[in-house]
From TrEMBL:
Stretches that traverse the bilayer: 213-236, 274-296, 326-346, 393-413, 451-470, 482-504, 516-533, 553-575, 587-608
Domain of life, source organism: Bacteria
Organism: Kordiimonas lacus
Matching Pfam families: FeoB_C, FeoB_N, Gate
FeoB-type G domain: residues covered: 4-170
Alphabetic keyword roster: Membrane, Transmembrane, Transmembrane helix
CDD domains the UniProt entry points to: FeoB
GO cellular component, one term: plasma membrane
GO terms assigned for molecular function: ferrous iron transmembrane transporter activity; GTP binding
Name under which the protein is recorded: Ferrous iron transport protein B
């Protein structure tokens, strides 16, 4: 007896392949792992016909794989996969509620020249959405049989079996030409879907109407800008109250500890070290959660995919694609979730570039540093009548400087270390939906957990280390600047030599020691250096006064420039190491950011000194 014919069940993710495979094979399946891969190999004979063996392959969007799972499918289909022979026929599953999108892959598969049958699945859902597809017209256009199915109710299976057996007997269908590029395929898919769709259904109609406005070449970008503006506005205004609660809570705890413990190193450690340090970090939680609430809601409505689409042209100018938009937007809250979100970028070079520029987006940890600096050196005056505050303009400029630097760096990286071929942007635009609360809440929980873990581990250890470095060796009784005797002071003294050309004095150099680990601690570190104690507000006010009194303007500007670029977050380095699986890229990131920071500060300092004198 000859070996059975192999029929591969393929299609886009989540279209019902496994449900169909289960229904067609009954319970006689074999499940094993492909050697060396974590991908499951699920096979089983067709019910009632042992001469046909079905294999359920991982879902994929195209013949260009985006993940190792998808690569298994495409390799098997091309016949280049070692652990599986090339299938004799393809059973391609298509989601009837999303025809245009799924057809693109069908057209690509059609070019393989293998016998093929299409299961137009989920026809029950399509009927519910009042989508009406002419299956025989579709079969005619594609030149292969199309069978309407409902996999979960075993509807259409008998017909599907018969058509599959027939297709195997008839051999490869005649070749049809749909074009040469992915864009051609997409265009052909849209055209066919349009031609065979008798009624497009309610959801598609709404989506089409909305997209006419939201993807409009002029109105689209304007609306996107307005949404982003509102979003950042909300992040700052809504977060104000909860941030005050957190600050009050920490102050309350500090008072409690102060009442409980006698004056001494333990009190200092708990109150000035741990509570002040960790408090300075978790105070950003409200801002981060509000920004992510916006992102997650917009994502679950389907709008974020449109935003990426709109941003694609701008991103393409520097060699990135639109998918980098969401990771970079997230990085305005914190680079860590931003870098992790870069996983959605399929192209490894694009993903790497996105990860490397994420720290240039102004994260919320820079805000208190900017606020204190601006408060200290920029006069609180208004421009253009009473419309625009000068301090606000400087803040905006600092944000903008980060974005522009990121675009330039991306352009350079894409031409050098992350050189890759240009990609056509293929993003499936999902139907619009009402946002799902569960999705938003689990997303928020995940972000909060990540962030708090960082506060609880890295920031906590840094705070402890800082406290130790600043407290020992102890200064002699009555010393004017106790810190100068401590380890922080000693290390600051060494660093001052390096930082003198960019205008940093001993105090800044000393504060940079702990500030390298996490940006937020820079202000409390300056407080320590200037021997300013008390609650967070008192430290901020004290540091502001100290800067105004002791720093020259060029030094303050140079420090701002430093903060735009310098890598000062251990967690970012750690997450980059994890996401790029090695030390090469995090070290590269450290190096280029330091170089950029030093050069920017040097230029700022020298130019400002020349102008101001
Ligand atoms: N209403 C309806 N639901 C279906 C149908 N076919 C599958 N489903 C459901 O759709 C979901 C996805 O089905 P799967 O069979 O896991 O899809 P898949 O294509 O194997 O997905 P991946 O392996 O992740 O690519 C499941 O919840 C199924 O129960 C159908 O014809 N009608
Ligand atoms: Mg499956």
């Amino acid at each position: 007896m000859s070996s059975p014919s192999l029929v591969a069940v393929v299609g886009n993710p989540n279209c019902g392949k496994s449900a169909l495979f289960n229904a067609l094979t009954g319970l006689r399946q074999k499940v094993a792992n492909y050697p060396g891969a974590t991908v499951e190999r699920r096979t089983g004979p067709l019910l009632g016909n042992d001469h046909i063996e079905l294999v359920d392959l991982p879902g994929t969007y195209s013949m260009t794989p985006r993940s190792p799972d998808e690569a298994v499918t495409t390799d098997v289909l091309k016949g280049t996969f070692k652990a599986e022979r090339r299938p004799d026929a393809i059973l391609c599953v298509v989601d009837a509620t999303n025809l245009a999108q799924h057809l693109r892959f069908v057209i690509e598969l059609r070019a393989l020249g293998v016998p093929m049958v299409i299961a137009l699945n989920m026809t029950d859902l399509a009927a519910r959405e009042r989508i009406n597809i002419d299956a025989s017209a579709l079969a005619h256009k594609l030149g292969v049989p199309v069978v309407e199915t409902v996999a979960v109710r075993k509807k259409g299976l008998q017909d599907l079996k018969e058509k599959t057996i027939e297709a195997l007997q008839m051999g490869a269908p005649s070749t049809l030409y749909f074009g040469a590029s992915v864009r051609d395929y997409q265009r052909a898919a849209r055209k066919i879907a349009k031609d065979v769709t008798l009624s497009e259904g309610i959801g598609h109609k709404t989506t089409r109407v909305l997209d006419n406005v939201l993807l409009h070449p002029v109105a689209g970008p304007v609306i996107l800008l307005a949404i982003l503006f509102l979003m950042f506005q909300a992040v700052f205004s809504w977060a104000e109250a909860p941030m005050t609660w957190i600050e009050d809570g920490i102050a309350y705890l500090q008072t409690g500890v102060n009442d409980l413990l006698p004056e001494g190193w333990l009190l200092s450690f708990l109150s000035d070290g741990i509570l002040a340090g960790v408090g300075a970090v978790i105070v950003f939680l409200p801002q981060i959660l509000i920004l992510f609430a916006f992102i997650l809601v917009l994502e679950s409505t389907g709008y974020m995919a449109r935003a990426a689409f709109l941003m694609d042209r701008l991103m393409a100018a520097v060699g990135l694609n639109g998918r980098a938009f969401i990771p970079l937007l997230s990085s305005f809250a914190c680079a860590i979730p931003g870098i992790m979100a870069a996983r959605t970028i399929a192209d490894p070079k694009d993903r790497l570039t996105t990860i490397l520029i994420a720290p240039l987006m102004t994260c919320s940890a820079r805000i208190p540093v900017y606020t204190v600096l601006i408060g200290a050196v920029i006069p609180n005056t208004t421009l253009f009548g009473n419309w625009v505050g000068l301090q606000g303009v400087v803040m905006f400029t600092l944000y903008l400087a980060g974005i522009i630097a990121a675009l330039i760096v991306a352009a350079v990286l894409k031409r050098t270390v992350a050189k890759g071929k240009a990609h056509t942007f293929m993003l499936e635009l999902p139907k619009y939906q009402t946002p799902r609360l569960a999705y938003v809440l689990t997303g928020l929980y995940e972000r909060a957990r990540l962030f708090l873990r960082r506060a609880g581990t890295i920031i906590l250890s840094v705070t402890i280390l800082l406290w130790f470095l600043a407290s020992f060796p102890a200064a002699p009784e009555g010393a004017a600047s106790p810190v100068s005797y401590s380890l922080v002071g000693i290390i600051g003294g060494w660093l001052e030599v390096i930082f003198a050309p960019i205008g940093f004095n001993w105090e800044i150099s000393a504060a940079l020691v702990p500030g390298m680990a996490a940006r937020e601690v820079a202000i409390s570190a300056l407080g320590t250096v200037y021997s300013i104690g008390g609650s967070e507000e008192m430290v901020e006010a004290g540091v502001r006064a100290a800067i105004a009194a002791n720093w020259s303007l060029p030094t303050a500007f140079s420090f701002m420039a430093w903060f735009i670029f310098a890598p000062q977050c251990l967690s970012t380095i750690a997450v980059t190491r994890r996401e790029t699986a090695g030390w090469k890229w995090p070290l590269f990131m450290l190096g280029y950011l330091f170089a950029l920071a030093y050069i920017a500060s040097f230029i700022t300092y020298q130019v400002a000194s020349a102008i101001i004198g």
